[in-house]
Design brief:
Length: 191
Amino acid sequence: DGSTDGSTDGSTDGSTDGRNRQRRLATGTAGGDDMTQAAGSSRAHGIDEGDLRRYADLILRCGANIEEGQKVLITGDVEHAYLIAALAERAYANGASLAETFYFDDRVLAAQASGAPSDDLAVAVPGWYEAMYQTVIDERWARIRTLGDPLDDPFADAPPARATALQTAVALPAYRTIQARINWSLCACPT
């Protein structure tokens, strides 16, 4: 009947809910639309949909170690949308209560570093961005960041001091989540 001792789904009592969750994990269904297929771009990257789901599960279970009912923030470059969508879908299949995403676009950040009318505005990070990470800390969310350089250096033409200061300002709130010892993981994204 597919029941186990519950060791693969985190339950210890072999409950029906645990078995149902285990079946969802095994079949790759999270209910509702399949976001990895909706994103559709993993095929363009030559990645099998099943492999993508298994990779996402590995990141969520072993990397970020998400817990049943935990919220998760998934961030990465816009070019990583196919993996970020798979991570969000699989987060729900692995028991997350909420999966939120945030996309970075280094071309936009480079434009800010180059084109802002003052040095202060060139390195400004909006309050809502810092508040997002503070919420992750306060509510003990899990956090996942995809990595992989999709572009040549978009900061090549930006003033180096401004580019460095802006990249530091963007990274600092995320670094605070590590200091706060929440569950977090970095993962590679083929580009």
